[in-house]
Design brief:
Belongs to the PRAME family. LRRC14 subfamily. The protein is of the alpha/beta class. The chain is about 40% helix and about 10% strand.
């Protein structure tokens, strides 16, 4: 459905559609029209006009999320368009804002906020080329350093050095862009464009480098910290991190796989875990926690009970939780506030059905997203699952890939899911009857694609027909075989893959040496 545009917005589109005319005429445009022209230019991917608008930006702040979000003149939200042409034009325009004005004293811009940009799987821009979070980190760091070099080598107006613009950004650092970002952060105080890190993600980075760069980001301002793939952070390193660095504003924390492993715990490890819990308790804003693929059996209470603020998001997928852990979660204050919950990899229907459904009941009034992948949910459990989900009227996302459900059970479940008014996204497993009879669950990667594709297509058509007949065309149903889309992994998968191969090779060499 086409989004309505105001007459003002239609006029703005007409104005910017002729790039040469628009660029020549900008000096005569009223300042309050710049945001309108910016969104129109972004929609039409007029890179040159975007560059000139930013270069001559007359306002105190430049907030990408607000500029591209729903406005009175045009309701459509464009913040999920990470268009390469548009974003590159924005950032180069920002650099030229510092350089190209006749008088630096008329410049008002103080804050540029790039954090509202959302990286999504499907791009609607014409060029179909994206600039992801890693590339934005790379380009901003590069432009900041180039700007500094240019100012040092050229005779500029002395007032140019007095320009100070805070650029709020979600940094994404890997081995490949580490040196460049470090240099930009080290020289931040001398550069007119000051990188202010609001969220930090690190993949494929040596631990020593992670500890060094995290201190440079100014952790006191950090709201989100993601330490994800191929960063070998273990519990003792996490304790050092929390003991040496304070994160007073941290809202969201993601820890890498195997940070915790209680199977080999000593008395010292128990004390360490208690200390980590207490340090997290000092983070008064912390409401989002992801600790997937750690072994936390029997320790959830020790880790979460010190938290002062109830969690809104919890990912404990594949954490080997036992009945005591689930009972703590179901009865804790966190349960009533959980908007996002991931319990994948736990046999919930066999091990602790009553406590799981108690947890679901307590969180039902606020729960927006539920993930139950590889939970051994079978046909016999579907009615029980429907009963548990029936109170979750605010649910927007439900993911249950990897469960051994038949096509008949899926049809039954889909008929119910149509009744959840806010549900928009469903990720369902390839039906069990599409696989060979000898397949075992959880299905390994080698066998994931060994199903009857024709039969699967037929079942998918039937499921979509159920949605259609219930007037739920707004619901998207899919079966991403290798899990949900991760924009960061998608952007850096070549580097990550090469690193994993190198790591595997080193392990093999050590093994061969020990054998010899």
């Amino acid at each position: 459905r086409a989004t309505m545009k105001s007459l003002r917005f239609i006029s703005a589109e007409a104005f910017v559609s002729n790039a040469e005319f628009a660029r020549k005429s900008l000096s005569g445009v009223a300042h309050n029209l710049y945001p309108l022209l910016f969104k129109a230019s972004y929609l039409l991917e007029q890179g040159e006009v975007i560059h000139d608008l930013v270069e001559n930006w007359p306002l105190v702040d430049f907030n990408m999320g607000k500029l591209l979000g729903a406005t009175v003149d045009y309701q459509e939200d464009l913040s999920n368009r990470t268009c390469l042409v548009c974003l590159k034009s924005c950032l180069t325009g920002l650099r030229d804002y510092v350089l190209n004005h006749p008088s630096p004293y008329v410049k008002r811009l103080k804050v540029v906020d790039l954090t509202g940009i959302k990286d999504v799987e499907v791009q609607f821009c014409e060029c179909k080329k994206t600039m992801g979070r890693w590339a934005r980190t790379q380009l901003l760091s590069k432009l900041s350093l180039e700007l500094l070099v240019y100012l040092q080598q050229t005779e500029c107006n002395p007032g140019t050095f007095k320009i100070s613009i805070d650029v709020l950004i979600d940094l994404f650092v890997t081995e490949r862009n580490y040196e460049l970002v470090v240099q930009a952060l080290l020289k931040k105080c001398y550069c007119p464009l000051k990188i202010c890190c609001v969220a930090f993600r690190s993949d494929n980075l040596a631990l020593q480098k992670f500890f060094y760069i995290i201190k440079l980001t100014d952790p006191s301002l950090l709201r989100k910290l993601e330490i994800v793939h191929n960063v070998r952070l273990e519990m003792e390193h996490l304790e050092i991190l929390f003991n040496t660095i304070h994160f007073p504003l941290l809202v969201s924390l993601t820890l890498p796989a195997r940070t915790f492993n209680v199977q080999r715990f000593t008395a010292t490890d128990e004390r360490m875990l208690t200390n980590i819990g207490e340090k997290m308790g000092e983070m008064m804003q912390l409401t989002e926690l992801s600790m997937s693929f750690s072994i936390l059996t029997g320790r959830i209470q020790k880790l979460l009970s010190p938290l002062k603020t109830p969690l809104k998001m919890l990912d404990v997928s594949n954490c080997s939780l036992n009945h005591a852990d689930m009972a703590y979660l179901a009865n804790s204050s966190h349960a009533y506030h959980l908007e996002v919950l991931d319990l994948s990899g736990h046999n919930i229907t066999d091990l602790y059905p009553s406590t799981f459904f108690k947890l679901l009941s307590h969180s039902s009034s606020v729960l927006r997203s539920l993930t139950l992948e590889d939970c051994n949910i079978q046909d016999t459990h579907v009615n029980m699952l429907i009963l548990g989900l029936s109170s979750c009227q605010k649910l927007q996302e439900f993911r249950f890939l990897g469960n051994p459900l038949s096509s008949q059970a899926l049809k039954h479940l889909f008929t119910f899911l149509c009744e959840l008014p806010m549900l928009k996204n469903v990720e369902f497993p390839v039906p069990r009857d599409c696989y060979p009879t000898d397949i075992t669950y959880p299905i390994d990667d080698a066998n994931l694609c060994r199903f009857d594709h024709q039969k699967y297509e037929s079942v998918t058509e039937e499921l979509n027909l159920i949605l259609l007949q219930a007037n739920r065309e707004d619901m998207k149903a899919s079966s991403p075989l290798f899990g949900s889309y991760d924009a960061a992994v998608q952007e850096t998968n070549n580097e990550l893959g090469a690193s994993l191969i190198k790591s595997f090779k080193e392990t093999l060499e050590k093994f061969t040496t020990s054998l010899n």
